[in-house]
Structure formats: C-alpha cells, structure tokens
Amino acid sequence: MRAELFIFELDYTCPPKLVNGEYECLGFIYCRLKAHTIAFDTFMQQLQDLSAFLQMGHRNFPLNVERETLISANGCFSLQAKFRAPCQDEPFTVSLYESPTEGCDISGSPFTLRKLIDHQQLIAPFGTVDHRKRAMKCISSTVSQPKRRRTF
C-alpha cells in the first residue's frame, strides 16, 4: 500500500498553541523513501501520473516533487501542513488520494493531537527522554547579569 510510505509528525520547534478556543498546529508529512533515489523517483512519478494528492481534513496537498522546497535538509520529501484542531482528542486523518474518489490513510492515521504530543514528547516539562535540545524562544529581551566569581 503506497499510503503507508507517508508519515506525519508535529513540528517539535512549534508545539500546538491554544488560540481562540482552537489549537493552531504545524506539522510535516514525510515520505519514508529517500529523495533522489531510483525507488523514490519511480514512486513519485507514478503518483504524479495519477494526479495523486495528500489530503488533511478538507485541504489538498499536490505531490509536485519538481519543487526542491519539498526536499528537506536531510534529503527527505516533506510537506509542511498548518492546521487547526478544536481539541486534543478530536481525530483527524491524513490520506493519500490516487484518484479523486478513493483515499487511503497514511501510516498511523487517524491521529489525535494528544497521541502525537505524547508520542513525540512535545510537552516534557523537564526535558525529553532522548535528551535532544529543544528550540526555545527568548522570553525576555533584557540581558542577564553574569554570575559573580567566587573568591577563596
């Protein structure tokens, strides 16, 4: 099943925020095949020949790999997806449509925000289990005083 070659992740640098009663979210749809390989190029050409697209909610994402912006720094195909969710437990799907009427859910779909947040450990008040650095935004624009040196 071709849809299983796609996965979805929330952007760990921008966790979901509650704004006006809805969660504003940013995520990425990735392809498991490495870009610029024979398998990837053949796979994407087949999808383009079928005019296939990915759908999240009511929003369509065309699969146009000729745009280099869809290839991330690590050489993987990725589509940025911004969306809103009414609550953390509301399921949403990401589907691959190879024809206008038939869609197949991608790997792990349907998702809930809570499941994605827990799985990716986005809300970890004391860091993450895998010890990766988190991108933090500067809270204060004031420069802090350097610590005083001890004198012995």
Itemize the secondary structure elements and their pairings:
Blueprint: E1 6-10, E2 17-19, E3 22-34, H1 38-49, E4 53-56, E5 59-62, E6 76-85, E7 94-97, E8 103-105, H2 113-120
Antiparallel strand pairs: 1-3, 2-3, 3-6, 4-5, 4-7, 7-8
Q: What average pLDDT do the residues reach?
A: 81
Count the beta strands.
Answer: 8
Low-confidence parts: 137-142
Distance between the termini: 70 Å
Number of domains: 1
Radius of gyration in whole Å, from Cα? 20 Å
- What structural category characterises the helix and strand content? alpha+beta
Assess the beta-strand content as a share of residues: 25-35%
Shape: globular
Helix content: 10-25%
- Secondary-structure element string: EEEHEEEEEH
**What does the main sheet amount to?**
4 strands, antiparallel
Number of helices: 2
Description:
The strands form 2 sheets. Strands 1, 2, 3 and 6 form a 4-stranded antiparallel β-sheet that branches. The protein has a 4-stranded antiparallel β-sheet with strand order 5-4-7-8, with no helix packed on it. The protein has helices at 38-49, 113-120, and strands at residues 6-10, 17-19, 22-34, 53-56, 59-62, 76-85, 94-97, 103-105. The chain has 2 helices and 8 strands. The protein has one domain (2-120). Residues 137-142 have low confidence and may be disordered. With 152 residues, it is of the alpha+beta class. A hairpin with a 2-residue loop joins strand 4 (53-56) and strand 5.
